[in-house]
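Why should sequence recovery work at all? Because a backbone constrains its sequence more than one might expect. Tight turns favour small or flexible residues, buried strands favour hydrophobic ones, and helices have their own preferences. The token representation captures these environments compactly. In the example below, the structure is given first.
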């Protein structure tokens, strides 16, 4: 356990260093609603544009983020920890899916992305309904954490030619993490109703992981074929 925690601390430090290369610190000041709306509009205007992110750096950041997420999922057994992780996963999936449904090139990847939007919206709704009855004092987060925000920004800033590969890589990592989270809480969680939710959700996560791994194999085959045709 000590070794895992040390590994997680090191990975987190690398992730923070990489993220600092292209992310401004977020403000924690509470603002009136009008100011929040204005900030949201400004943030949207300042979103990374396609081609503004370095693919090598994005791949490295995503790999470290995946390692951090996997370790965190392995250690999550409390209701609050599980709810936070599951809600953040759903938020990232919905936002990334909407983006990929517009920008992905492979038809099957576009369909997968839309399926993720639909599936994770449903998962969010179901978890919220369970919390109302079973854990009303636990509130899921309302916005993405910095790790997933960085992942989303790297996806937004990917070049068109790199987009499919970046989305696929993120999806494999995200679903690996979610599968570990669901299995772990279903086994060792502290709320029976939410344990049942985790147990019911894990096979769906695994199905999504199998789907994206299949798309990844096809994407790699397409890339290899394109390289072989190059004079």
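From this structural description, the recovered sequence reads:
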């Amino acid at each position: 356990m000590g070794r895992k925690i040390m590994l997680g601390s090191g990975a987190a430090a690398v992730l923070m260093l990489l993220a600092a290369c292209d992310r401004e610190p977020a403000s924690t000041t509470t603002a009136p609603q009008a100011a929040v709306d204005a900030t949201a509009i400004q943030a949207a205007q300042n979103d990374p544009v396609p081609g503004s992110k370095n693919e090598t750096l994005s791949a490295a950041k995503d790999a470290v983020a995946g390692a951090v997420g996997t370790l965190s999922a392995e250690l999550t057994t409390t209701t609050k920890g599980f709810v936070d992780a599951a809600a953040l996963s759903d938020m990232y999936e919905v936002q990334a899916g909407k983006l990929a449904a517009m920008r992905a090139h492979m038809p099957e990847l576009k369909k997968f992305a839309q399926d993720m939007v639909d599936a994770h919206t449903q998962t969010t709704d179901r978890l919220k309904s369970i919390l109302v009855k079973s854990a009303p004092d636990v509130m899921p987060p309302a916005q993405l954490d910095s790790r997933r925000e960085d992942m989303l920004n790297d996806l937004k800033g990917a070049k068109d030619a790199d987009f499919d590969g970046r989305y696929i890589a993120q999806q494999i990592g995200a679903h690996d993490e979610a599968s570990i989270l669901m299995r772990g809480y279903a086994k060792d969680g502290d709320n029976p109703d939410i344990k049942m939710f985790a147990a019911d959700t894990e096979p769906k996560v695994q199905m999504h992981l199998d789907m994206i791994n299949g798309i990844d194999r096809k994407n790699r085959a397409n890339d290899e074929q394109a390289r072989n045709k190059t004079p």
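A few observations help interpret the result. Residues 1-43 have pLDDT under 50 and may be disordered.
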